[in-house]
Amino acid sequence: MSAEWAIVLTAVLTAAACALVGTFLVLRQMALLGDAISHAVLPGIAVAFLLTGRLNSLPMLLGAGAVGLVTVALIEALYRTRRVAADSAIGVVFPALFALGVLLITTQAGRVHLDAECVLYGEIAFVPFNRLVWGGTDLGPRALWVLGAVTLLNAALVTLCWKELKVGTFDPTLAAALGLAPGLVHYLLMGAVSVTTVAAFESVGAILVVALLIVPAATAHLLTERLGRMVVLAVAAGGLAAVGGYGLARVWDASVAGCMALAAGVLFAGAWLLAPRQGVLARRLEHARRVRQLAGDLLLTHLAAADECPPGVPAVAAHFRWRARRTRRLLDELAARNLVARGPDNLLRLTAAGRQRVADFQDRRGQRHSGNGGDPTERPAAGC
Amino acid sequence: MFTAFADNPNLWYVAAGSALLGLTSGALGCFAVLRRQSLLGDALAHAALPGVCLAFWLTGSKSLSVLLAGALAAAWLGALWVLGILRGTRLKEDAALGIVLSVFFGGGIVLLTALQHRPNAAQAGLDKFLFGQAAALVPEDLRVLGALAAAALAVLALAFKEFKLLAFDREFGAALGRPMHRIEVVLTTLLVVAVILGLQTVGVVLMAAMLIAPAVAARQWTDSLGRMVLLAGGLGALSGVAGAVLSALGPHLPTGPLIVLAATGVLGVSLALAPRRGLVWAWWRLRAHRRQVRRENLLADLYRLGEPGRDWAQAHGPAALAGVRGLPVGQVRRTLGQLRRRGWLEAAGARWRLTGSGLTEARRVVRNHRLWELFLARRLDLASDHVHRDAEEMEHTLPPEVVAELDRLLGQPHTGTHGEPIPRPGERNEPSP
User: Fold this and answer.
1) What is the CA radius of gyration of chain B?
2) At what angle do helices B255-273 and B279-306 cross, to 10 degrees?
3) Mind telling me how many Å the CA of B385 is from chain A's nearest CA?
4) How many Å apart are CA B224 and CA A83, to the nearest integer?
5) β-strand A340-342 against A348-350: which pairing, if any?
6) B213 vs A92: CB contact, 8 Å cut-off?
7) Domain B2-274, architecture per CATH
8) Do B258 and A261 touch (CB under 8 A)?
């Protein structure tokens, strides 16, 4: 396997592992808990490194995973004193632990080779050089094995606890009533987030792992309403961001991790703008459609009320205070739908279909407000 | 501490800069904390990074004011995007903050590394914004930071009433016709300024703590917003100076993390020891209450044991007393000791019996219990087999005036809801004939 393939594969595995648990973080509105964990494992990483002298060893994964759980427990304990709000509790605990980690690393930097930047941004370009050698045979890059294992672990958690995660995410009370152990599942999820963060930090760093946890899952959340599809889409978006980010980094000669975060952000921005129902564009179009429909209905009602002496285009425009072009475009559309006809005298009259439509929605209105509304457009016109 | 200042003249600048940061972020952080927006500061700090890099890229200048302008612009964009994501999508605030934070920060890292890989090394030192580098503060920087902080605090002082309205009752403010949206924009801008100040000193990652920790700490000491803001500013400044001094004590000690740890320490002390809200006092009150409940329960048990023959002279052993409620014998022994020290019990060999004053006290507890049971059953129409548990709790907390009122309300009853006698305060202590 070439070095390049090893890097891309590692990046994709990282993204997949993160997206699997990130989906549930986003749905449970715990995105910032993921952020907090990813920062707070720093002292765990530092201590494990000082003890074992190696990055990404098994004790390190377990130790940092434990630190992640301690972080969650600390935040919850602080919150449960009822003297600190939930968001403040998060914002107090993780900087303190992170500061502790930075302090450990900088004061011990003389003794061992570990600098804060390497932990924080990671360097995926070094992945191919750190080999896993077992019994004399070179099995390939160590990070690849570690991330492969973590991805499998997360996939196992999601598939084995699918029902528990699903019910616990959308209806924690029901999950408790059904005996689905929401508390245990919560801590399993948090443990998985911690382990994933630690496994990922070597390639993407402890901060940017947040991008892979949250952003692809949020992207998927905008695109679908089904949990299963959301998980698949999140993994796909993460993978795409990993590959695209690597490409960008090659072009710009910049940090791979940063480019992956940026690529994930671009994907999210795309979904944010273009998503079929929640996208900015879709909502604008829907809004414009509704405004047009309302204007058309108003116009039809007005014409129905003025049946005795039909108005011309300028009179309609003046009545609604619309610009001439807008009025004409609206009338063209209504004419195309065969609701309004312009007579040879250039006056506007409803067609039979138009009259039927007005009658229809006046019926509906009549049912809704069972009284006679004082709508001025319904008054019979008093002479021309 | 003073020798540290004398040995290291640079420490004055570092301490002054850190105090400035602590003061501003502490005071402004109060509003972020009260409005449940603690982590907005975190997101804004991360979002500022690409602005710093872009400002350098475009101007080629590394002067603090240029870089801060870039940071300000980028943080603003980030804040706007958070609002844009929240409006109309089903994503919640946490996800929106996380997205802006990580994507902007990623963009910043990309710019930073791209700049670093360019041939000229002029970009050196840009990355000090990541962790902050208080130790590198020079008088020139202090003037810029001081001007920013003074401006932010002046606006805070002028618009204090409006911000207060925003923090506590936004709808009321809107009903009064105040431009709440504009006030919110001004407050967010001030928050951005505080964050930008912190970039230089403690860095992107740790900035969140500087906004939150002093404010939450100050909240423990007071219920008045004005006092909270002043106190948070003071505690923030204190943390800043403490961190600066601590970092001067040894080689390679980073200032930013030490400032944050100092602020966390201040918060820890406040949470534990603040009057009224302090956790230590709360724990102490709870312990005292538990002990009182155990004592009164034991007295009531002794009273009930003697009740059938109206003979309270008989003594009972700890094991038998523990058996009444299934308590651990050790706990009962401790409670017996407390009762003896109060003169309510006397030892008879290895057994215990009520003294005269103990019997009076026991009678009071049992009377409270039975009156409350009767009240629940008669006045609130609860089934008489459902009232015991509630009375078990109320018997320890009913004040004498309420007991007198209950007695009057129920027509000075002699028997309780289960037909047992209700003891009266002046009753004689002899056994019945």
Assistant:
1) 33
2) 30
3) 28
4) 15
5) antiparallel
6) yes
7) Orthogonal Bundle (1.10)
8) no
| C-alpha to C-alpha distance for B424 and B411, rounded to whole angstroms | 13
Q: In chain A, what are the domain boundaries?
A: 3-207, 281-378
Could you tell me if A253 lies within 8 Å of chain B, comparing CB atoms?
yes
How is residue B343 written in tokens? Answer: 């003169």
User: What average pLDDT does range A29-38 have in this prediction?
Assistant: 86
Chain B CB within 8 Å of residue A46 CB: no
- Secondary structure (3-state) at B57: helix
Query: Among B45, B48, B99, which Cα is nearest to B256's?
Result: B45
- Whether ipTM tops 0.85, in short, is no
Q: Which residues of A touch B279 (CB under 8 A)?
A: 81, 83
- Please tell me the class of the A3-207 domain: mainly alpha
- Give contacts of A 294-323 with B, CB under 8 A: none
A214 contact residues in B (CB cutoff 8 A): 95, 98-99, 102
Does the beta-carbon distance from A218 to B106 stay under 8 Å?
no
Average pLDDT over chain B reads 87
Q: Label the pairing between strands A137-141 and A131-134.
A: antiparallel
Q: State how far Cα A120 lies from the chain centre.
A: 23
Picking from B107, B50, B77, B102, the residue whose alpha carbon sits closest to that of residue A26 is: B102
DSSP bridge partners of A347: A312
Residues A68-75: what's their mean pLDDT? 89
Q: What is the dihedral of CA A326, A328, A334, A340, to 10 degrees?
A: 140
Contact A201, A48 (CB under 8 A): no
What ranges in chain A are assigned the alpha helix state H?
3-27, 31-52, 58-80, 86-108, 116-121, 142-160, 162-170, 172-177, 182-223, 227-252, 256-274, 280-305, 313-320, 324-336, 352-368
CATH 1.10.10.10 fits B283-409, yes or no: yes
Do residues B298 and B320 touch, judged by C-beta distance below 8 A?
no
Domain boundaries, chain B: 2-274, 283-409
Lowest-confidence range among A138-142, A270-274, A341-345, B213-217? A138-142
Q: Taking CA atoms, what residue in A is nearest to B33?
A: A88
More confident residue, A315 or A1: A315
Q: Does A94 touch chain B (CB under 8 A)?
A: yes
Cβ contact, residue pair A261, B88, below 8 Å: no
Cβ under 8 Å to B: A residues 122-181? none
Distance from CA of B124 to the nearest CA of A (A): 15
Q: How many beta-carbon contacts under 8 Å exist across A and B?
A: 201
CA–CA min distance A4, chain B (Å): 20
Instruction: Tell me which residue in B97, B206, B211 faces A99 most closely, judged by beta carbons.
Output: B206
Can you spell out the DSSP letters for A225-243? S-HHHHHHHHHHHHHHHHH
pLDDT by residue (tens digit) across B361-381? 999 999 999 999 999 998 888
CATH topology of domain A281-378: Arc Repressor Mutant, subunit A (1.10.10)
Contact B43, B82 (CB under 8 A): yes
Q: In sequence order, which residues have a C-beta less than 8 Å from that of residue B159 and are 6 or more positions away?
A: B183, B186, B187
Paired sense of beta strands B345-348 and B351-354, if any: antiparallel
Quick check: B88 contacting A, CB < 8 Å?
yes
